[in-house]
Amino acid sequence: MKKEFVVRSIDAAPDGAPYVLVSLSSIKDLKEGTQNPPSPFGSPKVMGFTNMNDMMKDLNKMISGMGGMGMQGGITQLKLEMHEYKDMGLAVGDKVFLELSKAETLGV
Q: Which pTM does this prediction carry?
């Protein structure tokens, strides 16, 4: 299977290790008009609370991304070692292809 993506962002490793995180968006998503990056908090919603327990439950849902809030899907991330990243010369906006294939197992 071969899929086409566009490089959305390139970020340093959060722990300072010698690798980068490359975020990809599919060409299909970009063509459908979802070019704007989703807000990390989803669409703005007003939450009503009747007591502290309800507030804490809803707050936990908001933080964990449940209930239609939180990060949206549609982004593929790759972890590349620094030498791989430098060899490829990737930049934001570049078109890339990912090819997945299943390993053949013979006579196990």
A: 0.57
